[in-house]
Fold this sequence. Notes:
The chain has nine helices and five strands, in the order H-H-E-E-E-H-E-H-E-H-H-H-H-H. A five-stranded mixed beta sheet has the order 3-2-1-4-5. It has helices at 8-19, 25-43, 99-111, 128-135, 145-153, 158-172, 177-189, 191-195, 197-201; strands at 50-65, 68-80, 86-94, 116-122, 140-143. By secondary structure, it is of the alpha/beta class.
Amino acid sequence: MYARGITVHEIHGHLEEIYGIDVSPDLISTVTDAVLEAVTEWQGRPLDACYPLVFFDAIMVKIRDEGFVGNKAVYIALGILPDGTEEILGIWIEQTEGAKFWMRVMNELRNRGVADILIAVVDGLRGFPEAINAVFPWTVVQTYIVRLICNSMGFASWKDRKAIAGALRSAYRAENAEAGLAALEAFEAGPWGRKHPAIMQT
């Protein structure tokens, strides 16, 4: 509750109202301080040297900061280990998303022990791939499929978008790269590809 921006006194009232427990604000403060120490330790923990796949993304949440509640972006790096295990590499809170911020994140990951990321999956933020490759030069940067589809739809009229998305489905659901390329070539040769050639370039 404290992490969601609820004050110590509001937590006290909530515990009393819901659970009938009378806990002093001092105890609540002591508990949250102990948790914050553990969070700080977790944020700085050493990481593995190599991650085959890392997803970088953000979600907007309401956060109380200095008595005011406002929207802030919570950024997450989700690493996938060779055995398929998922691991949150870090969580950062910033006002806005930008290449400078992501460059700072990449440097932090390197300083915590990451030597290489094989594939980084990102949204379409300008400068993001360059920020990743400045720190991890051999990383292949891939855009989220959803972002690619949204970018492609920007070239089509509203009435055509549903049909075009259906036509592209065979490409982005293909079982391998060869099948995906064949589906894209079929799309390009078909009516939608001829009507909207910029979609194929995207």
